[in-house]
Specification:
Helices cover 61% and strands 15% of the residues. It has 328 residues and is of the alpha+beta class. The strands form two sheets. Strands 1, 2, 3, 4, 7, 8 and 9 form a seven-stranded mixed beta sheet that branches. A two-stranded antiparallel ribbon has the order 5-6. The chain is rod-shaped, with a radius of gyration of 71 Å.
Length: 328
Amino acid sequence: MRLKAPLTALALLALALALPSAALAAKPKKKVRAVTRTLTGQVVGSSFPSGARVAVPVFLDAKSVRRAKLRGPLALLKLPRTTRVRVPGNRRVALSGLRAGDVFVVRLRLTPAARRAAYPAVNAPSTFTVRRRGTAPSAAELQEQLTALSGYLGALAGYVIVQFADLRGQVTSLRGDLGGLQGAVASLQSRVGQLEGGSQVQLTQIVERVTTLETQLQSVTTQLTQLTSDLTTVQTLLAGVAPGDLAGALSDIAALQALVGGVDVGALSSSLSALASQVAAGDAALQGQIDALDAALASAEAQLAFLCSAGLVKGPLLSLSLVGSCPA
């Protein structure tokens, strides 16, 4: 009797535990349907082909994970190959132009299998939109930049080659010029040697000429100083001359030049010389006649004095008033 009680209690306990399990097993499972949710997150990698679509790895934010009841934040969005994603600035880029760090928003239809998967791959519509761009360029942008850089480097290489060719030509020309310069220097050195050896006389002559030039320069300097003084004097004299007076003087000078211009100066000088000779000759003859008259007058005065003393003549002599008269 002691053994039956424990067995009965165990049986009852087993029955009590079996009844809920049987009830649960008999209860029909609830059908889980697909749901549509708006999700946001960031692109975390470069896109790659996945069948007929292009897969984009993304990292969903915590709010989107809770809203969609996903197991984790990582997901793979599959978009059509021809999708052009709208980005800030009212532009559209290809899926290959998506950057790591692009903040996106998309409305997805999530199936139960996708919600249960640790890393779901979901087909996304072409309404996938980027709200804020990442700072790191995408692989396609890097490829474009590398292509542009390659073109620039090619152009730079061509330019450098052309410049080096030109520089090589200039160096060759410079070498030729240096060769000519070396020849000229050698010739100059030989001339200097000759000058040092036997051209001391020429150096002395050059020194004398330089000394003469210095003397002449001093003379010219003195003359220029005198000329400057004369010009200062002229300026002082002209300071009180009115423009009208100067114009009248210039007019008179012009008239005088016009009058003198028609005179034969040479003939006039010859005539004046001849006239001066004739005047000199006439003066000499006239002086002789005056001397003869003086002698005759003195003789007449002596004879008159004799006649007066002899009493032969009395009173004034007629027609001889120039000679005089006897005293009364």
